[in-house]
Every structure is written in C-alpha cells, then in structure tokens.
Amino acid sequence: MDENQLNFMIALLSAISALLATLLMMFYRFLDQRRKLEVSPIYQAGLIQTANDVKFDQMYLSIRVLNVGSQHLYIHSPCIKIPRKIDEIDLHQIVTPDEKYPKRVESGEEYLKKTSLEQILSLLESKLRLNSNEKIRFQVTDSFGKIHKSKPIKLSTLRAEFTKIDANTLN
Asked: Which ranges does the record mark as transmembrane (predicted)?
C-alpha cells in the first residue's frame, strides 16, 4: 500500500467516524427532546382518625400522569378507555368533568387525580355493563394530540382492590 492509499484510507475512516458521531449526537438529542407521559393507576385508602381509632373511609383510584420527557406538556382531561364500541364509536369516560383543562405538567412533575373507586366500579359495571374479564385503560391526551395510555386493567382487579376493605368500615 503506497502513501496515497494510506492517506485516503485514513481520510475515509475519519469521515465515517465523524458521520457516525454526528448521527449518534442527533439520536441522543432526539431522545432528550421527546415528549412522554407515563399514565398509571394508584390505589389509595382514605382514612378517618378519631381519638381512639383509625378507620377506613373509602377506596380511591388515582390516575397518575408523570412527565418523563425533558419539556413541559399540557394535558387534557384524563379518561377511561372502555374496551368495546357502541355503534362503531369508541367510548371514553371522562374522569374529571368539572375540572379545568389543559393542565401544565413540568418535566419530572406528577399530576394526580383522585376519584372514588366505588363510583368508577358502579359506572363500569352497572351503567356500561362491563363484565369482570373486560379490561379498561386510563389515558390522557397531551396538547400535541398524542394519546398516552396506561397498561390494561381487568375489572376483576379493580373489584379485588375495592373488596380489600371490610364493608362494615365504610360510611
């Protein structure tokens, strides 16, 4: 191999390395700028403390929206995605119809909306007639129109969480 070929190979290797470094930098920049929300349910028990005792008040199902992206996002009302269609229309149950939206969620910030587990179960089982094997999802839409969903949850799981509290302790 003569000196010209060696210089050409070194220049070619340098150009390829620079291109790969640039592409890698662009990829990491893209990952850093992404907009992503994690949506998940959280089960909570309301407690009432008296002078001598602590009693359960009610079970709550909170919808947790965590902004894991690097930029703030505006979210619209969290809703429950119903698993079946009626007349070819997707069903969504708004969880918080009385609250003002959109809400600003900063990077790393968490938005939590607490709702009564009993009311949600009543709505899903009685009014919408869902059976215990059907699955629902919580979802929220950001200001860019992207839908962020939780993992699916069986209604039987929600019912099991609700029955963990002895019915005699509820008001």
From this structure: 6-28
